[in-house]
Queue: 3 jobs
Job 1
Amino acid sequence: MRSNTSTARYNMQIQTPDWQRTIRFDAWDERIEKRFFIRVLAPRKEKGTAWLKSDKNLWMYLPKLERDIRIPASMMLSSWMGSDFTNDDLVKMDSVVADYNHRILSQDENSITIESTAKPDAPVVWGKIIHVVSNAGIPLSDDYYDEHGAHIRHLAFKEVQMMDGRRIPTLWVMQPLNDVGKKTLLKLEKATFDKSIPASVFTRANLRRAGKNR
Amino acid sequence: MIFSLAWRNIIRNWHRSFVTIAAVATGLGALIFLWGFNDGVHNAMMRNLQQVIVGSIQIHHTDYFKKSSLSRNMQVTPELQKTLANVQDSGKIKALSWRLDTFALAAGDDVSEGLVLLGMDAKAEAKTTRIAQKVDQGRFLQTGDGAVCVLGATAARNLGVGLGDNVIFLTQDRFGALAADKFKLIGIISSGEMGIDRGLAIVPLDVLQNMLEMQGRYTRVVLQIEPENLEAVTTSLRASLNHKDYEVLRWYDMYPMMKQWVDLENAFYYIFLGVVLLIVAAGIMNTVLMSMLERVREFGVMMALGCSRRILASMVIVESVILGALGVLLGLTVGLTLVAWFHSVGIDLSAQMDTVARFYVDPIVYTEIDSNHLWQTAGSVMAAAIVAAFVPIWRVAKLQPVEAIHHV
């Protein structure tokens, strides 16, 4: 999981009691600069929709209207593409280490349980996150709690496989606990790590191009 | 005999009687007018809340109000249609409108903001609410409009858009897929209500239904009902609609703040008017007591002639009741005339009010009085007038004829 850059293709399945749908997308991720780029491949209605995170801003491109839109802070907790992941999950993916205090809750022969509590002034949305990580360093699950200590959602990491020389979980299952019958399965189809990505990928010009090329 | 004695005493010294009646009447008239002002402000606030956009009663899919989601939508089922038609036939529903609303991201040229995207049917809404009158630039929706929108003034300013500009709304349709469209801005609302001015975009119902894959589906139906029918209609709707499918919410179930505010203010008013009532009672007691003291000699003569203390006391009681009743009648006339007069003319307070408050409180207050407030006040003043007579009665009962005759 820990790499400086990654390029990956995901298949995201959203399940609800009323409907179910699948979104495929490509993602370019550059950890050091904290920027990423996402382009939706399917379904057809949303094809070419693209997301860019750069300089703490989140942009979205709508191919149908040929417009890019900046997602404001007030929309960060809104669902991303109808899934159980939020816009904030995209933007803040890396800030857990810096914005939370960590301590080991328990440890056995298989795994370590780590509790991350939000620092008092940290601009984060979760009050507490409990991570379970295997002794081999592979994440098993994350549980998210709000500032009142209520358990909001459970993220399970499954199907550990070799991918581009790394053993990583390839299926992430996000389960919101206040929404019965809803869950999102994020499947990693392929990935390459630590291959340098041209800086031009992470630009608004590329957002617009992404829509036109496809 | 006692009554005619008392009555003669009253008309014999009409000057003194008139002062007592005037004291009661002035006090009551003032109290009624104060209630009239208070109730006028409160009822206007509650009417404004209901009539501008919220309605008196809303029906949603169960739990929609707490956890809104497009999956909790309503279709015009025979059950719903029959229930609504029944209440409508009874004449208790003045008007109703079906709406569809969801959260959306609105984007202008450079800025974007989250807000509520509300689909309204222009024709039904005109009969149900007064939102169209709050448009102060451009116009409200009309039947047959295409992709147009009406925005709150603050939202339009934040997005940096003006009349004729395009606004993009980005949201999810019923199946969670991305739904985005361009809408031409045709009207700007400034209502003075923050929620409306900064967080609302109104678009034609049919356009929004298509955009969200919600053809034939709605998220709420808004009913406009006279306040006196509110509880009865709520009860009958709740009885005939299945709890598992529908929730029936009164305006104050959804927005309890205002009702709580009115209740709190009324509680303060009761305390305030209680103090005023004490002052009024003291005034009445003063005039009654003075008129008794003037007559101590006269009472002494009556007792010397063989009139018992009981008859004397009863006479004074009857006098007080008659004076109190006349005072209350006059007070009611004066108070209600004042309330009626200012109900039609209004009291212009626009100079004292800032624009922010104007959504709820009209700058011109039209007085009106709730009947329970009216009867409580009239009853209290009558009681005060009678209680005020107890001190003189008690003194009369203790009088010694010889001392009384010599009383100066």
Job 2
Amino acid sequence: MLSSTTERVTLSGMLADDGYLIERLRTGDDTAFEELVDHHAGPLLAVTRRILRDEEEARDAVQETFVAAFRGINAFQAESRVSTWLHRIAVNCALMKLRIRERRREQDVDALLPHFQADGHQDHSSVSWSESAEEILQREQSVALVRQCIDQLPESYRVVLVLRDIEQLPAGVVAEKLQITRDNLKVKLHRARQALRTLLDPHMRGAM
Amino acid sequence: MSSVTCIELIAFLDAYVDDELDADTRAGFDRHLLVCPSCRAYLETYKETIDLARGAAEREEDLAHDAPPELIEAVLTSKSRRSKS
């Protein structure tokens, strides 16, 4: 693998190394494309895996990302970062696959939301977890457990959580990509977080 | 907001966490949190859930950063085919 180069930021905010790379890509320099793929394929695969949960589809989405990037190299905006540009293309490619994938019957998320008594108090008292997120994530098995819990969320809630809380895309962008209103997105994200909290809770109360 | 209940606080917890509430409503939420250990724990674990989701994804990327060689090869072959056509 090629070693990553030191990133230098120019006054315009664009990385100087990005600028040189884009210039070479536009002139048809094959080694520049190899560098682009070598440097970005890994992180992009992680993104498409998170969205699609299917290795083959995730790899296809990465391949399509680079094809789309190669085709659209002249449209690349100089003020952007290459990694941000590729990330957006990868998310689009993965979401396209998600849409055309035969939709599984959407499970109800209600069972994973907190329940309340008639007087508005919580049905079951919540208790703090025994360790901080940072401490929990020191263990590889905990990382895998968090992933498994995220994967148990109903599809439309899981995708909202991945795009907003993990990929950290702006709300307007996610609402547009998922073709839902911003209000609907907000409700879904809150429910997704609550449902994930419910799934994690029994594991996090005691030491894992 | 005069007297906030658990159901109200948890319904708008995302707005509380994202600091989107007006000052009066926020003060009402803060008063409820002072007297309700269950909601304090819920708030704490709600925020920790967000940190865990984000942190686990970052850790996964650290653990498996490189793309499989066959994927790199497939991308380069695909590009080479398109360049020739």
Job 3
Amino acid sequence: MCETCGCGNKNGFRIVDPGSGEFTHEHDHHGIHSHSHAHHHDDMNEHPHQDKIILNVDILAENNRIAALNRRFFEGRKVLCINMVSSPGSGKTTILEKSILELKKKRKIYVIEGDQQTTLDADRIKKTGVHAIQINTGSGCHLDARMVDAALQKLDIEAGSILFIENVGNLVCPAIFDLGEKERVLVMSVTEGEDKPLKYPAMFETSHLCIINKSDLLPHVDFNKDEFIKNALHINPHLEFIELSAKNGDGMNDWQEWIINKNPAS
Amino acid sequence: MRSAVKGQPTSNELSEIGYFYTMHELSLAAEVIKLVESEAVKHNARSVDEITIEVGDFSGVQAEAFRSALEILSENSGIRDARINIERKKGKGICPACSQEFEMEQRIDRCPACGEFPSEIISGYEFRVVSLTIEND
């Protein structure tokens, strides 16, 4: 049950501004809750008025509709929205922290952080001096377009800026939820296996860029980079790759250049 | 820790289930219930007898997890008596060399005749409510 209003909808999520501590509780109070079945029918012969309704409705249609509205909002304001996805612990937040320190000299930066609980990541991002909003998904394993829409209402995003959305660390569910982003960036680290594209094809298929992070560890691990890239390209021939180390800064210039080139404000 | 509850969960139990079902199948099941309920209202249905859903092997949705999420959530909804049919759709690709259609178990499968990766996937991404059977007065 939703803890704030007690409405019984466990799909509620929270938007937290770590600066003010202010939070909003968002969810739909949807559907009919009436239970009009006064009796149970045991015999199919009691159903003379059965109708078949053909729907063929995509179950993700509502998410996709809101994602399209988000996308139009970004396009209208010439905001570059980047959805960062990965397994937990791949280094997304560290990459963001370090890139923001440079990027904020050129563009206004905003960050939406998605985690099941805590504002730890948004707190880290706020220390770089940019505006960050935390979405706590509660039991949810991914961000959806509705959550991003709610967070956008808390961020008065200036035209020509860059918005990073750091998704919940998970290679499965975030793949199927469009948030309205222009670019989806998949962060992999060399401590993961080169067979990841084969195991989690949907995430590789829907991403535009793959960052191969923690490259400073390459001499110490068995990661076969060529095999990894080959596997990923079988799934998605258009995928781009940037190898970097957020720790020692290798490749960070390539990554920042990639972002600036994608920014419609430039 | 307790496994997912079947039967007649109360709303408190449902909120606990939410923590065990930390996956997208639960929120997608909620979408289906919302959709079916609004169709039922639109057609003045007394009840919904059957819901048919197509789930492709590459859709990112685990068919069995989706079914149990739907069964648990529908207990507290207007469609709790409906029979849920889940039709799995196999992956199918087109070979760029021989132009033949071939079945795919996995996304990385190649044409069994030519050994080529598919140039196009024509089936496997489906995730939709196909039809409802409702009862009218």
